[in-house]
Amino acid sequence: GAGVSQSPRYKVAKRGQDVALRCDPISGHVSLFWYQQALGQGPEFLTYFQNEAQLDKSGLPSDRFFAERPEGSVSTLKIQRTQQEDSAVYLCASSLVRTSYNEQFFGPGTRLTVL
Amino acid sequence: AQSVAQPEDQVNVAEGNPLTVKCTYSVSGNPYLFWYVQYPNRGLQFLLKYITGDNLVKGSYGFEAEFNKSQTSFHLKKPSALVSDSALYFCAVREPGGGYNKLIFGAGTRLAVHP
Lengths: 115, 115
Known about the structure:
The complex is a heterodimer. Chain A is mainly β.
């Protein structure tokens, strides 16, 4: 079946531009996570949705980062006024239920380069 | 605070030889532990998890991992390495309980299997 998809796969932005990154989770998955993976590092948690509710946004690095999941399926991560330090791969993951022992299924990521 | 350590940046092994990728963790209570693999330009793929029960966990592609509570370790192993196993491997931990709880990843270990 279809896995988690993300678009675009690659995005180049000039410093100061706004960007929007899309995630299509696996159909029926309740939980959705966004992670940021800097070069040579492991993914770091950004935010979590249970259906349409954003229950944890403690990992968002600044108020320039905003995420939404208005209908409980597709999610968008928006970064306003991009900075060079925002350059990273942004990973989306979904999970069938909210319990912590279920594995998360990851998308291929969006590689953001801010010039 | 939870943390995961992968002490080796890279592991080199000859094809056909056994491999071990090390992981240690720090978490309050009993942990939920995961291994993921990342191939170039692809998202993380779930390999295996430890929740409870038998300390030896078997996963995808012939991989297994051993949970050692006294040493707070969860090393990934495979009896006979393949060249196609060459990839980036991440260990991750989640706090137990009924909540969703985010994954905390190690920095990753690059496995290189030589013919």
